[in-house]
Design a protein that fits this description.
45% helix; alpha/beta; single chain
Length: 308
């Protein structure tokens, strides 16, 4: 998000526009928690995780009165266009607010889950999967040395994108995601076949939102039936949401930040900018909120073929 913020500020400055940063999202907008930003204010942040503007959930912004206060703050500060980085919640708020107060808002997709419609990749996703790959490579060393079966739970409350891509990246023996049914029998058969082939260890990547109930739940069920390996569980949790962004994320965030300012200057509003097939794509908020990115069936097949 910092890389995106930097791109927004620098693109606007390049085009002789003034930029104000809003701290803590919509909550800060209501409270007028603003700071003037120039090119120098965003120096040395491209490599930092998180966001220098911080983030918050705002209950007040869900109310008509809250949104009136937010609009008044924008008017008072001569703000006539907003770039909002986030996901479904951010765009739902933006869509309502923009319609009520006729303030142009451009959305930038920022979530590690990569489940937003209208862009191939969201900001944070690549960094998150690299974190998972790095962690699981380390876990694999122990798994291998001790003949263990590891269940590694990754983020993705409603989506399996992190699990699927990182699972392929680490050569996981199985990947369990909410978008596909998890069959215990099949999983056990697969482990059994691996055991017979003298596989010394196995790694199973489990998306937290998988209907099996997550890594602890599924590991318990497998353990009861398959005792050949010692079984361990690791939940990676919020390490996936921080850290220095990958090169791919920095470039994506920079491109999207520039596209967002370009879109505002072109008079676009209530729209999310994304990149689809290497080209800038505009998706109205209503559509971005309503649809979700579909899981890539070719990647699913690839995972199946490679984890025989
Ligand atoms: O950004 C979405 C997400 O990464 C989900 O996959 C995950 O369940 C959630 O955030 C966790 O966020 P928190 O626990 O900080 O609310």
């Amino acid at each position: 998000m910092n890389a995106c913020l930097r791109a927004v500020v620098r693109t606007a400055t390049y085009n002789k526009l003034e930029v104000v940063g809003i701290f803590r999202g919509y909550e800060g907008m209501i409270q007028g928690d603003f700071v003037k930003l120039d090119s120098h204010s965003v120096s040395n942040i491209i490599q930092r995780g998180g966001t220098m503007l911080k983030s918050a959930r705002s209950e007040e912004f869900r109310t008509v009165e809250g949104r009136i206060k937010a609009a008044e703050q924008l008017k008072k500060n001569n703000i006539d266009g907003v770039v909002a980085i986030g996901g479904d919640g951010t765009f739902t708020g933006a869509s309502i607010f923009s319609a009520e107060h006729n303030i142009p808002i451009i959305g930038v997709p920022g979530t590690i889950d990569n489940d937003l419609y209208g862009t191939d990749y969201t900001i944070g996703y690549d960094t998150a999967i690299n974190t998972v790959v790095d962690a699981v490579d380390k876990i694999r060393d122990t798994a291998d040395a001790h003949d263990r079966l590891f269940f590694v739970e990754v983020m993705g409350r409603d989506a399996g994108f992190i699990a699927l891509r990182s699972g392929i990246g680490v050569g996981a023996e199985a990947i369990l995601i909410p978008e596909t049914e998890t069959y215990l029998e099949e999983l056990i058969d697969k482990l059994q076949r691996g055991w017979e082939r003298k596989k010394s260890s196995s790694i199973i990547i489990v998306a937290e939102g998988d209907e099996s109930g997550g890594a602890y739940e599924i590991s318990k069920k497998v353990k009861e039936r398959f005792t050949q390996y010692e079984t361990k569980v690791t939940v990676l949790g919020h390490v996936q949401r921080g850290g220095s962004p990958s090169a791919a994320d920095r470039v994506l965030a920079s491109q999207l930040g520039k596209f967002a300012v370009d879109a505002l200057m072109d008079g676009k509003q209530k729209t999310m900018v994304g990149i689809v097939n290497r080209k800038v794509a505009y998706t109205p908020f209503e559509k971005a909120i309503k649809h979700h990115q579909k899981i890539n069936t070719e990647l699913l097949k690839l995972a199946e073929v490679l984890s025989l």
